[in-house]
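Filed under: proteins

Residues; backbone shape codes:
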Amino acid sequence: MPVDRATVDRAADAADAAAAGAAVERARAYFEQFAAEYDDAARESGWRLNGLLAQALAGVGPALRAVDLACGTGETLDELARALPGAELVGVDLAAAMVDRSAERVPRATVVQADLRDFLADTPDGWFDVVTVVGGFEFTPDLPGLLHQVRRVVAPDGHLVFTYEPVLNGWPPQSRRVETNLGSNGLELTTFRWEPGEVASGFAGWETVRSTLLAAYQRDNVPTVYAWLQYRRPAGRVAPAPATSSGAGVNSPGSS
């Protein structure tokens, strides 16, 4: 009996979407349970990425609106509040427990519980002068596709600051693209890693303000390396770059 290639492809796509959705749901459940202990665990692990944000925001200048995606317990949102005192602030996270903690930490911000894909789809083009995602992108099964949506909401001359976990060939702890482990609270958590070229491919014409690799934290005395990127969108109107992939979106809870 001949094989219908289209049927096979649809079945494979459905299986991939189901697996991606399951990974997102695992991360949501993980951070729902972990929210109360998250800040203490981050300090104990030596989490250092938020400490770099003040320097990154120093040259941004006045902003009307700023958003922290995957806002977690609100540490990045708090940095935005200090750096941009006149800006309208928004935080977004998939986990309700994280949303509650962010709202308590930064009362002037509007913090919403939403899947990032849905939030971004409802946001007008060029709406935010500053977009941050410090921790969180390591849980999305389709980072290039999600970045396509994120770039669209950055205002001309606006800044996008984000982190992700890169694939590091030759460094066994981060040599695999997808890895599921037990987290600190005993629940499974899936990490997705990306090649730098996959991430940078959609930023043609954008100014690279900073691009670096750094040890973000330690687990079992082994450092976890993150890529830190800051881009500035050109001042003129720019059509969003075409998406390089598609599929399930991000699990929004993260380390922001």
Q: What stands out?
A: The mean pLDDT is 84. The two ends are 53 Å apart (CA to CA). The domain at 5-232 is CATH 3.40.50.150 (Rossmann fold). The helical segments are 5-45, 53-58, 75-83, 96-105, 116-121, 143-153, 196-200.
